[in-house]
């Protein structure tokens, strides 16, 4: 990728400020409506309403935030952010949503600064950051209050990489990057991949030796290993989510991941029917696995051949893969795929997508001799603007399913109707809104689903008995009052 001509410092500062305002404005215009949304019954109660650690500023609470896991995650700075929110907003969900939106806006600006630093291209970086800012795949990360740990961790990951991913960096840069990396770990454990990303950058972009690159990541690598060991026991609980994949071998998981990665690319290109939970097939997909593995192999060979002439392609690909590793179920998770898993990996995809479009554009539009440079630029700007506008419209339209429990699980039940946990959560939402008979019927039907296992059956039956008892009491009280 070619670099842009050197510009006066004041012009660069002016363009930077304009880009920042544009990105923040886009985020607010697309996601700002979420401040009118409620909490949802998927982790939000455990992070906020039923979490005594965020209810006050006592020493006991602060110590607990620093030492305890919450919903199978050790993320003290994330929980601390909820404590601040609770102090400011109490039980008003809009305040928590506002914090998430502002964090996403900050991350969009950081993406712009980081991509510009790596590529030295202002407009290219701005287009990538705009796609990152408004794409529908970001809805879950931004609008779901419980996804805060991803937003907060991403902010410090990006800040850390701004110091680490420099062609010429100083010891002070490396110290700052390491400190920010530790902060990112305290927000979410998936930040452990940062040393790997920096290592790849040093090897293939900065052209440093293996020994030198490894030595520079020695401390960060030790910190990552320490944090993995520290949090290894936090994911033991298998309550909730989906579990039918947990007994598969690592080789089987790898094959399924190859298929899912293509699904993710499809979602980035055509983001429709997004949901909080998906039910991807894991049986009878041998052909899909074979085709997917072959296709990824061909792409890997092509990228490897381009490593000398286009090192940023290799770096972007390996960075996206590194960011996906924590969520590819090599370490068992109770979900196979989620939109939020693409929050940072999508940056590399958008970068390569913009580069590919630019390559085609140069080979077609720019070769039309009758076009003036200004006309050509306007065509490019109009095209980029229409794409951003289209994705923004889809985000605004699809975001409405997160406005409350009922809307969220109604849509999820349409996308993944055979998932028992979806029907269970939908029943809870119906009960909360007074649809008592509908909730009981849904739980009874959920118990008949083929995918119900012993853990589900025990939990569903317990809740069903509670519902039936409370429903009978409500009916009796209504009869007495008459």
Question: Could you characterize the architecture of this molecule?
Answer:
By secondary structure, the protein is mainly alpha-helical. The chain has helices spanning 9-31, 44-49, 59-67, 76-89, 93-119, 122-134, 139-143, 148-164, 171-185, 194-204, 210-216, 218-231, 250-269, 286-305, 311-324, 345-364, 373-399, 405-415, 420-432, 436-446, 454-481. α5 packs parallel to α8 (148-164) and α10 (194-204) runs antiparallel to α11 (210-216).
Sheet with the most strands, sense and barrel status = none
* Uncertain residue ranges: none
Q: Report, as a whole number of angstroms, the end-to-end distance.
A: 78 Å
SSE sequence, one letter per element: HHHHHHHHHHHHHHHHHHHHH
Helix count from the secondary structure assignment: 21
Report the average pLDDT across residues. Answer: 92
Q: What's the shape?
A: globular
Q: Rounded to an integer, what's the Rg over CA atoms?
A: 24 Å
| Number of DSSP strand runs | 0
Q: Roughly what percent helix? A: 55-70%
Oligomer: single chain
Strand content: under 5%
Structural class, judged by helices and strands? Answer: mainly alpha
